[in-house]
Structure formats: structure tokens, C-alpha cells
## 1
Amino acid sequence: MSWTQITGSSCATKALARSSGQTLLILDDDHSLIEVIGDVSPYCRVPEGRATSAADSYLRPELQEEARALLLLARASGGREISRAIHLGDRDLAVRLEARTLPLASRQLIVLAFLPDPDATAEEIPAIGPSEVFNREILRLERALLASQDDLRSSVAELQAANEELEASSEELQAASEELQATNEELQASNEELQATNDELGAVNREQQTRSDALQELNTDLDNIQTSFTQGMVIVDRDLRITRFSSLAVRVFALIPDDIGTLLSRPFTPSPRASLVERWRSVTMTCRSSCRSCRTRSRTAADGVRS
């Protein structure tokens, strides 16, 4: 007897199975029967109507236990499992069972093939099946094992996805760490440059402070000289601009505080300064002092130029 499709399956599955030339059953994830290929009547007894039980329940009693074991092994390993030779008592026939996985899209089907072995020394298995309670318990355990395997596969897939995400995050963190390291090295180099600049500025500041202290001392000395001087004194720079003058010089040369910074040759009254310019130039060239008397409206004074 040749059976056709019992439940829906794709044309690709049937074509792949038929190409092997074997007599076989195609099962789904729960070991339910999907497709029958070839004449399996020597090995199975299927009632009329739609198949609703696990595929191994349709097998001959002497094949059921071996088929269950092979299906579980093939499902667990994802490979190919072959049984020992089994003798069918009412038929002068020895057969081996082969179970292998058949991936199809997102599903993983299982193929149970019947391989006649006329040359094998068959071992007859008594046709006395286990008790009904034992069968129900075995079926429950098988389904629990299948469910656990599915959960384990899902967990492994989730862990693999999580591991890939962690690896991607680790690579991003590594790249960020390298960028921070490079930035830190740049900041360290900048800090060293700023430290060197700060040291240079500190040295310049100390020099300026030394000069400022020297100028302060000089200014103090000049103030003391200017205060203690008993004659009118006017101090000019090399450009003949007035920088200082004593209180007595105010009456002699008619100076006011606004005259500081002005040229000595600026016209003024009552005492002319024009002659002082020539004499100052003469003193700076000869490095010899000059002194002469002059008369103002109120008194006679001596004006002198020293280099």
C-alpha cells in the first residue's frame, strides 16, 4: 500500500524526501506525522481518518521503543542515528530504523526511514508492549524533554544575541577608552606646555619685580634728594623733557605740576629757559658742569647744569 499526504507539507519537502528513494515518515517538531513516502505497510498500522497521535504510536510494537529512542537522539544531536537490526516476527524481514533531521525554513522536521537489511542477523524483539501507564509516562517525559530542548535553543539564541550586543558594546567602550586616552595625552602635553610657559612668566615676573624694586629705591632716593636739596633743581631726560623739579625751582623757573613731561625749551616767564638748552647740550657732550648767575624780579639766583 502507498500512502499519500496525511497533513499539509511543502512540495520542496516531498521532493527532497522522494529523491532519497527510501521508505520513510516525515514528522514535525512534536513528532506528529506529516508525510508518508513509499509503502510503509510492513512497518506501520495506521487507522483510517486523520492522524492525531505521535508517529511512533502507528509503528509495529517491536519498532516503537527503538523509534522513540532514535527520534530523541536525532532531535538532540541534530544528526543521523541508525538502530540495530530488528526482526519482524510475522514477516521474514529484518529492518533498521534511521532518524535524521530535515531543516525547513524556521522549522526542524525529522525523517524516520525504514532500511531493510536481509543480510543482518536479526534479533527478534517480543511483540509484548509496555503497560499503558508506562507509555503515558514515557510520552509525557518525551514531550517535556522536547519542550525543554526548545526552551534551551531559545535561551541559547537569546544568549548568543546578548553576547553579540555585549561584544559590540565592548568594542564601542574600547574605542571610547582609546579616544579618552588620546585626549588625556593631549591634555597632558598642553599642561606641560602651560607649565613651561608659567615658569617663563614667573621668571619674567621676578625680573620685573627686581626692576620695580630697584626703580622704587631710586625713586625714593630721588625724593629724598629733592626734599633735602637747598637749591632749585630741575631734572630732565635725554629729550629735555622735565621729569622732576624741587619746590625752590617753582620760584626760580616758574614751574607748575603740569610742566612735568613738557620740553625744557617751552617759552615761559619770568625766567627764560632757552639758554639752558644749549648749556645742557654742552654739558652732555663735555661731561663737565656749568654754573652761572641770573636775576629774576625778586632775587638773584645761580643756575647750574650738571650732567
## 2
Amino acid sequence: MISIVFPGQGSQFIRMGKEFYDNFLVSKEILQLIEDAVDLNLKKIIFEENDKLNLTEYTQISIFSVSMMIFQFFNENFIKKNNLKIKYVLGHSLGEYSAFAASEVFKIDECSKLLKIRGRLMQNADPTNQSGMAAIIGMNCDKVEEILRLENSSVNVANDNAPGQVVISGKLNEIKKIENILSKKGAKKIVYLNVSSAFHSSLMNIAENEMLESLKQIKFHDPIYSIISNYSGNVSENKDLLFTNLSKQISNKVKWLDSIKFLENNKVDKIIEIGPGKVLTGIIKRISKDFKLFNLNDLKDINIIENEL
């Protein structure tokens, strides 16, 4: 049984997806579709040296664009041509929007407009620039949450990525306070992330409420593939449940560990990461050794997938 995963912020790099753009008409057409929808010169942002790609406002729409360029190639050349059966799709944070688009919950151009709004809202959520995120290495989510609760900390767990890999989010001075306590309690390493705000925390409540108004303008459809939700860590197959879960995503924890455990418990044996980088593949390896993992990120990956699927 096969599942597809889509990457989130942090997977971006200059010239990502360029081989697909140069070699496949469907990929070129998808990028043009998204450019027209959001009125941005994404080719310049994605393919040329610049400072915009790492700004959340542009990062999210850029990663989505590349993920869709590659997915539509995969859809034409593997799913449709070879009648390949995909059971579950999921994505990490902004990657969940890629999963929704791939599952035809809403159209690609509609999704691109949503992500342009989402990126701007999340980048500007803290005008003081006094909030952020940090990865806690060597401590599981339950333990981190227990410490935050006992210390009455305003910091939230943003991502439960894998055993021993948790991301916290909040005001930087509050993260600094809790950093020493986490270290004393057994955290091996604490790494501050290069982000503009405290994503997936209560500091995103205003952005989430504004995003909700944009989501209400989009017509949701039941997915053609089952979606594993970031918010629940469980399967969502109904458009109303998908809307509810997505509307709560920005300010709540990404339950990635639960999501991958769901795949493991439901007999998925192959996972394909479609989009830039191999971040999710690395995280999934930390969760389970039971999956055969593939990436579709550049042209050499095509032959590997052709031979293995």
C-alpha cells in the first residue's frame, strides 16, 4: 500500500524543481497556472539567486508550486498511466495544503491563493519579531508537554515530529526560560529555528481567525485519496471534517508522529515524498524502519521509482 507525503517550510532551496520545469510540459503549465493565480514571478523567486525564497510570505507558495509541479508529473506518468493506487496522502504544515490539492479537495489555483494569504499572515503574525521556534532533541513530546505544564509556560509544542524530536513555539524570552529546564530534565540539544514567528502556537490565533475567513470562500470537496490530518493525526475522508481540521491547523500542534504511526498501523509499506528536499524522509526513518521510502525531487529519482513500484 502506497502513501504520498508533501514537505513543509524548511525544504526550500534555489532551483528546486528546475529539472521538472525544463523537461516536462505539465510541470511548466502548473507553475504558469499558479503564477497567474497569485500574480507573482515565481520562476524568479524559485530558480534565481534572491533573498525572497526564505521569507515565509514567499517560501510557502514556492514550495507548494514545486510540489504540485512534480506531483502533476507523477500523476500523469505513474498514477494514470500505470493505474497506480494511492491510499493515503498527507503533508507537514503547509504541505497539508499540497495534500488537499493533490486529493482534489480544492483546485490548485484556489490553493495557491490560500497559501499566498497564509504565508503573509504567518510572516506578519508578530510585528515585534520577538517570537520563534526551537527544536528539542532527545526528549519525547509527552515529556516536553509535561514540563511546559508544570512550569506554567506559555510556550506550546508546535510539532511532534518523531521520537526524540519535538519543536516548541512561543515568545523568545519564554523559550529561553524553559530552555535551561528542558536541558536539566534530559534534552540533549536545543536548536533555534530560522523562522519569522511562533508557528503552530497560540500566538497564531489572530492569523488563524483571518485564515478561516479565506477558507470559507473556497468550496471543499470530498478527497479522492484519504488524508491524514495534521490536527488530528488521523484519517479524514469527509469535506466538512477536512475543513474543520485545516481551519485549526495554524495555531495547533502538527501531529506528524501520530500520522506516520497511523500509516504503519494501516499496512502502508511504501511512502513517496514528493517535492523539494528529503526532510520528511529523514524524519520518517526515525519513526519506523517498516517503510520503503522514496523521493521524487529530481530526474534521477524517476528511474528509481519506475523500477521499484
## 3
Amino acid sequence: MSLGYRTGQARNGREALDAIEQELPLAVLLDLRKPVMSGWGLLDALEKMPSLQRVPFIVISAYGFEWEAELVGATGYIGKPVELDAVEQVLRRSAIPAGHPEGPYATGGQQVTVGATAAAQWREYFLREQVRGSWTRMGLRAGDRVFQDPNVNVVMPNGGWAVFNDLDAGWTDGRLTLPIGWNCQKALFGSADHLPGERATAAQGFRHPVGPSVNGAWAQPRGSRLVPSVFLQVQRWLAHPYRTGKDVPQSVPWVLAAFAVSGDIL
């Protein structure tokens, strides 16, 4: 990698910690899943070093979750496979102090979502499909053309559309529901959404997982108005820009779990 920086490498968190203690870096690119000392262990150790409070730490991950970087207190995020222009952009912005014209900024905008749902049921078996389209325009800084939508975890074109489809088929008895679901997401990018000379990146690709889920509700306790329920979903990514089979296998599941209590408190 050649961006005009002098770089060093470490095979694990322990080697990285030793190198950082010897020479203070301008920035650290961090892979969380490393042997001996993981990225999480390295971050815990570095938090105890006052000299590193202003050094940006940028997470590199194949899982495609930008909130993962925020969760561990990192400054920035780069998805795998790593693009050189993405590294340059994140390094440039992560090293910029707050309040600088090219630093991080808050903004707002408009979003319009349209959709349709079709459902059919025969005895305990059901089929449901929901199709949605979402158009979003944010007040981005001059030169910025795309943004990360945290609600759907998709890189969106500013002033453009993304389409989503959810298909479920399964069995239910009213309290217990056992469906198999297929979901897909696709952001619709045009040539105007790319900078001059910039090529389309993997982050803009089509993605879709498939897998079973369990949704169940307990019987309402006697004398209580609350009905507790539980939801568990496990999906395998059939296609995902970060699960290419190189850094992370596509068989790594997407797991969701939730517990809810519904009803009137009073």
C-alpha cells in the first residue's frame, strides 16, 4: 500500500502494542479478530495509555457492520475487501480534528419509503412477501455522493433509490411461528454517484441471506396483562460484498435474537 505514509505491520495485538510503545503512530488500522491478543484486547490496553488519546484507530472488518467500530470506540471503519481509495479517505478524515470543514458532521434530510405486502394462508401454513423501495436525500457536504444508512446497513446513493424484498414461508399455531425467510437488498447506483475515475466497489453489490427463525409467545400469566415473547433468527448469506469466501466464508451466519414483553402496564 502506497499513500505516502511510512507503515509498519503486526501479526497480532501483542506485536502491535509493542510497536506502538516504541513509536507513536499517526493512525492505527486494526483487525479485531487476531490471535494472541485480539483487536478488542489491544484497544483495552491502549485506552490506558494517555499518549494515544488523540491517535485515530480504524477498524478493518469483513462483517460489514460500521456500528461495530463505534461499539469498540474506534474512529473509523473500512470494510473488506480493502480498497486503497477507501483507506485514503478514512485516514484523511479520521486525522482531521472536530470542527474542521472536512471533518465528521451531522446532517439531516428526507426519506420516502413505498411498499406493498402480499400474504396467503392455508390452515397453519402461510406465505408472505413484502417489497419496499426507499428514496433518500441527505444534506451532504460538497463532494460527498453516498452515505451509510444505519437503519438498513446499506451504502446509499444520495438522492437515489434502494430496493428491499422480504419473503417468508412457514407454519404457525397463533403462538408459535416457524418461518423460513429470504431477504435481499440492493442500492441503485448511477454513474453520477461515483467520483471521476472511481470504480464501483464491492460495498454497492447485491446482498441476500436465507434461513429459519422462531417466534413464540408464552401464555399470558394469570393476573398479568403482559405477554412475553421471544424471537430467534439464523441466516446464511448467499451473497454479500464482505463475505466473499476469502476473508470470511459466506457460511458465517447472521444471528438475531430478541425478547419482548407487550401489553398494558396499568
## 4
Amino acid sequence: MQPEAAGRIPVFRGPLVDINLRVADNSWSAVTEILLNYSKNGCDCAFVVKPSAYADVDLADLLDFHRESQRMVTRASDREGSLDLWVMNCDLTEESGLGSISGALLEPDRFPPSYFVEEYVRRITHARDFRQLITDALLSRCNLAPMGEQVRPGIWADDGVEIQKGARIVAPAYLGRRCTIAKTALVTRFSNIERDSHIDYGTVIENSSILPNTYIGVWLDVRHSVVHGNKLLNLERDVLVEVCDSRLLRCNGTVGREKDGRCASVASASDRSHEKSLLFPDSARFYTAELKELLWKGEFRNTLRLGLLPLLATAAAVEYRITGSDRGIW
């Protein structure tokens, strides 16, 4: 792993046994050193993988093929061409005539692909490929399976998920650990909400990926996108937007960021109260515009229903002042 990627190491569920993580400026030099150490410890061959694709490869079959063919290096491929997956002998050195590891592995004519992968392969060159992999996983087209429990057909929920009253989850969808889906929010159509994320009141998440520790504000419509913190990549327009208004998008539980650029974990009570006061004028303008539009269209029944909202909001505010909760109203 290169130094710039070290800060993006994900949080794992528990200790990873027999897995070592190494940070190096030159990845291929590190690979060469590790292979030689493997050889000294009695390991005859090893897998070398670059994270450029997801593949359901039968690794045991690939290893047997490598040994039976008595090759120095065996590279995998699929219908689209070479994959960044190799099996190579660990005792390769400069004296073996191989040259540099990177040159040997990356030069297509040096060791052409010899093992064909018939199983599922998805190359990851764009966020669009990542979204397709999520869709295929939710449809069981590959061996990548959602974590947690399948609480309903096509809906997976991991530990600590909170789905508040009135929220809707439409299959297929995945809800990661400790994420929250607030009242009247909707998660639908191949969406995945990753760990510690919060989808606030009335927001719709459709065919999108919400990456870990992300807050999505009230009454938003997120479609065909990948969101992380305050950055949103729309896949239909291929446009990346960084949202400065923390009421809309932010790292979960914070209005700002820590000095080192990472998301802070907790917002103070004064931040939350200030955020609510900022939301009120915008909400009032939005409510007035919606009321005028319904009247203009002649939808009198919906106009009467919308007219009840200020009364419910007032009652909720009073209950919140008295009990500290508005659950009874909504």
C-alpha cells in the first residue's frame, strides 16, 4: 500500500488474523522483498493482485494450474483480456533472468495470460463499475454477498440498524452497521447505505451508494449517485459536486471537520441548535411554495392535508420541549 492510501484504510469488524499491512513508497519493491521472505520461509509460490477488478476466481484451481504447467508466472484473464491477478514462484530473483517484478508482470508479451477465468468478473475503473458490482451482488449474480441478516426478501440489514417509523425500504437494498433511516425516508432500487450513515427525514435514496459515515439532509432526492461526506458524484451526468452547506451533506455527526481533514465524530449541542435555526427559514419558504403550487393545480384535498403540517410541527416542538422527544407526534 502506498502512503497516500494509508489514511483510507476501512474499519474492520474485528482483528484480521494472519494479515499484515505494509505501507511503502514503491509497491513493487515491497512485493519483491515479501516474495523473497516467503521463499526463505518455505513458501514456493504466492498470489499477486492489484485491486483493479472483482473476480470470482477459483484460487485453488488457479494454483493447481500454475504448478502443473511448471511456469514461473501465471496470469489470469477473462473475455475482456488480462486481469491483474498472478501466481508466481517466490524464489524469483534478479539472477533468475526475470528482471524487475513490475516489468515481468506488467509487460504483456513477457508472461501472456494463460489461465482463463470463466466466473464473474467486474473491472473497477469508474464509480459506475462500483455501482454495477453492488447491483450484481444484490441480485446474487456473483459471490459477493451483503453482510448482516436478510430481514425481508432482498433487504439486508446489519447490526445496529435503526429504521424509524414511517421509513420505507424497497428491495433490493442494503443497510450497513449502525446506519439510521429517519421517518418518511425512502431507500429503494439497488441502494446501499454503508455503516454509520444517516438518511434524514423525507429523503429519497434511489439506485445510489451512500459511503460510510455520511449524513444526507432532510427532503433531498439522491438518484444514481455515489455520496461520501459532502461530495456527491452523479453517475448520469458524470459530475462531482462538493456541497458546502453541511445541512445537506456532510460527514455524519458533524458540521465541520477536524484540523487534519478527517471527519469529526460528534457535533456539539450548540451546533445542532444552530443548524435547526438555520433550517427554519428555508423550510418555511419551501412550505409556502408547495402550498401555492397545490392551490394553483386545484388539488384541494392535498392542500388541506399540507395545511395540517404547521399544527403537527408546533405540537412536536412543544412535546420535544417537555419530554425531549417528538416520537409521539409523528
